[in-house]
Specification:
The protein is α+β, with helices and mostly antiparallel strands and 382 residues long. Helix content is 48%, strand content 9%. The protein is built from 17 helices and eight strands. The chain has a four-stranded antiparallel sheet. A two-stranded parallel ribbon has the order 1-2. α4 packs parallel to α6.
């Protein structure tokens, strides 16, 4: 019995020593020891600039100093937002840390207010799509439309959150037009790949007019226009100055693909090269009449009006140049746009001057089948 008692006392003594040693060591233990990148100088900075709760957060999450040390001395810095700061920094859009920290804090605050979970993932999506400014500064930002905002955003300048209001207006107009959610996404995907900010706005002025077809891809070679088909103030991306071909005035433009084939065509025949004159080419939206704006194929940079330098404009149909074009232009991708036998289809009177570039393959098909673009479009939609 006595031996058992002595053993118990020894056991208690050892435990007491262990506890004492633990508290003694713990008192001297450096809690920042496992923080990657720590040294005496950085420890002093951390203790100076981080609150006690931030220091605990740092230790508990073992955040490496490289993840936040660039910001630690700024008044706006909040360690809990360091991952958002780094997302913003990685975009290259922020050269000023004060702005970066302010945006990061505002973004986290608003996300926390609107969402109960997945805050970092939401912030990541917004930042990767350059939507953080619009999300913070426009109360009409609809988080369910993030994908559509991301489509529209590249058309707008820095610190321009008006894409939020624009998209909301476009969605409303397209819904009134009868488009469902899938249709709206498809429409927006198409138009933002071709239109610029202002030309898209102009296009959408007709969105609620159900009698008007809004052209999604005005750059398509097979696309045609008339009074009920609209492209707003669309401008082709690849317009080039026409050179080395006789023309009515110096500054005339054409899409690069059409210009290349036009040059080949003019070099193919001496009569054409010496007599053909370009009377009309690309015409910008502002230069068209009110009736033509958004409806003229001259806006496309694919349509040309020809004449003969040695005869009156009205007599062009009787010239060798006109005859040659009717027989050969299709070989270079050009078709007579308004032939007499298809006036009922085109809705346009016969005009020997006007040719439209549609590409060699389609031009050959239309020529051989004696059809116009309107026929081709109808067949494609069937």
């Amino acid at each position: 019995m006595k031996k058992t008692f002595q053993t118990s006392l020894l056991f208690i003594f050892i435990i007491a020593l262990f506890i004492g040693a633990f508290f003694t060591i713990n008192r001297k233990y450096d809690r920042f020891y496992r923080v990657k990148g720590i040294d005496n100088d950085k420890r002093a900075i951390i203790e100076q600039y981080l609150s006690e709760s931030e220091q605990n957060y740092l230790v508990q999450n073992q955040i490496p100093l490289t993840a936040f040390f660039d910001y630690v001395e700024y008044d706006q810095f909040d360690l809990r937002n360091y991952r958002i700061y780094n997302l913003l920094k990685d975009t290259g859009r922020y050269n000023d840390n004060n702005t970066l920290l302010t945006i990061g804090n505002d973004l986290q605050k608003k996300i926390a207010k609107n969402f109960s979970s997945n805050n970092y993932a939401i912030a990541q999506t917004l930042i990767e799509d350059d939507l953080e400014y619009g999300y913070i500064n426009n109360d009409d930002f609809n988080s369910e439309d993030i994908n559509l905002y991301a489509l529209l955003r590249p058309l707008y300048g820095n610190d321009d959150a008006s894409y939020v209001d624009d998209l909301n207006n476009y969605r409303e107009a397209l819904t009134k037009r009868g488009l469902n959610e899938s249709d709206i996404v498809s429409f927006m995907t198409d138009v933002v790949s071709v239109y610029k900010k202002n030309s898209l706005k102009q296009l959408m002025t007709q969105a609620e007019n159900t009698g008007m077809t809004l052209i999604r891809k005005p750059n398509a070679l097979s696309m045609y226009l008339n009074a009920s088909r609209y492209i707003g103030s669309y401008v082709p991306d690849d317009l080039v100055l026409i050179q080395d071909i006789k023309r009515y005035r110096y500054a005339m433009y054409l899409r690069s693909d059409a210009y290349k084939k036009l040059t080949e065509m003019c070099k193919a025949d001496k009569t054409i090269n010496s007599r053909l004159v370009i009377y009309k080419a690309y015409t910008k939206y502002a230069s068209l009449s009110d009736e033509e704006k958004g409806h003229s194929e001259y806006q496309l940079g694919l349509t040309l009006s020809f004449t003969d330098r040695y005869v009156d404009y009205g007599s062009f149909d009787e010239t060798k140049v006109s005859s040659w074009l009717k027989e050969n232009a299709y070989k270079y991708g050009f078709v007579l746009r308004y032939p007499s036998e298809h006036a009922d289809k085109t809705g346009h009177a016969y005009d020997a001057h006007v040719y439209r570039f549609v590409g060699v393959k389609l031009a050959k098909k239309l020529h051989e089948q004696n059809k116009v673009l309107e026929n081709y479009q109808e067949e494609s939609e069937e």
